[in-house]
Amino acid sequence: MSFLTIKDVTYSYQGINLVIDRVNWSIEKGEFHCLLGKSGCGKTTLLKLAAGLLQSNGGSIQLNGKEVMKPSTECGFVFQSPTLLEWKTVIENVLLPISLLRKITEEDRKNATNLLDLVGLASYINQYPMQLSGGQQSRVAIARALIQKPSMLFLDEPFAALDAITREELQDDLLKVCKLHNTTVLFITHDISEAVYLSDRLAVMAEGKIAYESAVDLPRPRIMKMRYEPYFNEFCLNIRHIMGREQL
Questions:
Q1: For 45-62, b where at least 16 C-beta lie within 10 A, e where not — what string?
Q2: Domain boundaries, the chain
Q3: Half-sphere exposure of residue 99: CA atoms within 13 angstroms, side-chain side
Q4: How far apart are CA 137 and CA 99, in angstroms?
């Protein structure tokens, strides 16, 4: 059995409007999967179902062999907005998930400092969110999601509001940290090149269904020049056509 298994899952709002229509998807341990799709296709809803934030109307979702019934401490979450607490410092924001469960230890502080170092914020630990750029706030949100060493990470368009260069830098940071911890990832995006660059495997959603899926045959580690090579651009163009956009 895969690490995350979604089998014949359906979901309707108030039992009327069908949003997810018998979706099947699986992710192996340590893999990075992306879901692409236009607004309203159901990709964020599917992520929330997989994360236990919503309950399906039918089918089953299993994480590490256990039925998903509610959010688990085995999972980390990063959403489009960093949602940092303005009155807490960077390191306090990173440690927030632990502080809600128990007293913070020196080992916790060391782990938080190491994570901030990995995402390039070692010198910002005592700053406040208002003193950070949007990209730096997103890095804090990633570190916070990883502080409890989750085996599964769910990300819902976390870089959508950032400029192109900052987004690419954060993509590299995310890949580096997830590789280091062997974290399994489900990442939602509407950006084709982002999905291709990050993914071991990607899927395109349309009208609540998986319309297309494919492995991404790029070596790891991913590096910037791959974005300009023929395979990458041809793959992106194919996905663009599949998503129903006009032909170039």
A1: bbbbbbbbbbebeebebb
A2: 84-188, 191-242
A3: 11
A4: 19
Exposure of 180 in the CB half-sphere (CA atoms within 13 A): 12
- In contact, 30 and 182? CB cutoff 8 Å: yes
What's the one-letter identity of residue 39? S
CA distances from 22 to 2, 111, 119 (A): 18, 40, 38
- The residue behind tokens 């899926």 is 213
Q: How many CB atoms lie within 10 A of CB 245?
A: 11
Predicted model pTM: 0.90
The pair of structure tokens assigned to 197 is: 């660059």
CATH number of 84-188: 3.40.50.300
Q: What angle do CA 61, 66, 72 make, to 5 degrees?
A: 85
Taking the chain (248 residues) in runs of 10, the rounded mean pLDDT of each run is 92 83 94 93 93 92 92 87 91 92 91 90 93 91 90 92 88 91 94 96 94 94 94 95 66
Q: What is the CA radius of gyration of the chain?
A: 18
